[in-house]
């Protein structure tokens, strides 16, 4: 049996050219011809990204001499057969994608997901491995530190010290690619939640009030840990934050998360109440943290062993992303960071957003989950008419189901119990969740037949029965118009010219024959841009007919637009003034965790 581990040496070899060099040593290559492959996607982001496209050069050596590597497909290579000594493969990989999904390197910092840099040694995925994270050339090597939850290779010569360059280790390739790495001059803060060390590493210029952030995040993390039961399933946790002027994103990992946020989303010294931007950032942190249980450990069956070469289909993203979306904001109100009213405002917005998505009548969340790879992750101008978000509707299914369970069981059972059961039965055992399991668990816990609710909410395209489910909580749901401006049914692209992003199906613009990418230049003979288009419409009544001039490609066209009544798609949630004891008790359990 092989005793020496696989070893990857990762060097930010040329930050100005955005090049990492990755040297992989395979001590015992497959004598039939060792195959090596780079993943086509990264778990958590359901799109084929073909990371191998960033490999600039790739060469192999054995016994100090070059040995051929034959490329087999877009991301797989095979070494020569019959090698009887360690195989060393060296790749230079371009890293200039400022996102949480791949790799980025310049003179200010380096960030990488090992799935973008480290070739998989086919047939040896379960072998332990060492990762030597090397410093950049020149003066930077003295000031840069490393943030990652990859364990330090203690007891090995060259082992990394805490936040240092040097040797780290992983038990398998699957573990390796679940630990992103940041290197540079980040700011570091830490806090303890339920006895576990949590760190926040912030890259990019910022004026963050670190004490405030650590204090607020601690409350969020403690709430999540207590929901599933202490201790959490990791020895430490790292929030890796990149603060930018433009951008947004988050990707979950087993003991860390990579986040991209606006620097103004971070709390500034002297900030009083939580701003909406900061509330959004805390919600993002809460979301990725909840994933440490829901999707990183409680997994849909097809994710138990990822196939990194192609799409991994599941119909359950509505539960893994949707329930996570539900709990991200719920944790904020339960942890006392936002008020009950602020929480209801968030849900109002979610319900309004779903009501403004015509695609909810075309695609179920089960279909949306399954087709995430080609539809949700590859949206175009027609997406609002054709698809529904499994985040948005999945979160509202969680809301409806939570209220239903609380009402039917008189507050005895809630979605919290479903999550805890999923954790014990699937998260702790490593068994995958099947398509029916969530319903079966909720039924077993509550004694309620939920076939109809799930058929309608998950498999169906009809409206969710949210008003009915919220009523027992003492919350009434009504829809009103967002403004008195008659509707044209157009969404414009951001920016000055009135360029159409989407024409909503069934709208006046649809009837007029206007299309996405048309640029409207005049309304009733007067020049308009995106802003003045709405202002001019506001001076009209529903039923008024307007002459629209627009360019489609370079051809000037004229359309006749008959404005419609504004849609009643603005949700309003109000807490019933009646002080019914039962509703108050159920609502307290729901929003404050009181039993
Ligand atoms: Zn998520």
Question: What does this entry look like structurally?
Answer:
- This protein has 595 residues and is α+β, with helices and mostly antiparallel strands.
- It has four domains: 6-184, Immunoglobulin-like, CATH 2.60.40.3650; 186-269, 2-Layer Sandwich (Zincin-like); 293-472, Neutral Protease Domain 2 (Neutral Protease, domain 2, Orthogonal Bundle), CATH 1.10.390; 490-562, Roll (Pdz3 Domain), CATH 2.30.42.10.
- The protein is built from 18 helices and 28 strands.
- The strands form six sheets. A seven-stranded mixed sheet has the order 5-4-8-2-1-12-14. Strands 22, 23, 24, 25, 26 and 27 form a six-stranded antiparallel sheet that branches.
- Helix 4 (210-228) links the parallel strand 17 (196-203) and strand 18 (236-244).
- The radius of gyration is 27 Å and the shape is globular.
- The mean pLDDT is 97.
- It binds zinc ion.
- Zinc ion binds at residues 287, 291, 321, 324.
Please report the distance between the alpha carbons of the first and last residues. Answer: 56 Å
CATH homologous superfamily label of the largest domain: Neutral Protease Domain 2
DSSP E strands, number: 28
Which small-molecule species are bound to the chains here?
zinc ion
Task: Please report the first level of CATH classification, the CATH class of the largest domain.
Answer: Mainly Alpha
Mean pLDDT across all amino acids: 97
What's the CATH topology label of the largest domain? Neutral Protease, domain 2
Radius of gyration equals 27 Å
Which term fits the overall shape? globular
Overall number of domains: 4
Strand arrangement in the largest pleated sheet: 5-4-8-2-1-12-14
What is the correct CATH architecture of the largest domain? Orthogonal Bundle
Binned strand content: 25-35%
Helix content estimate? 25-40%
The total count of helices amounts to: 18
Largest sheet: 7 strands, mixed
Low-confidence stretches: none
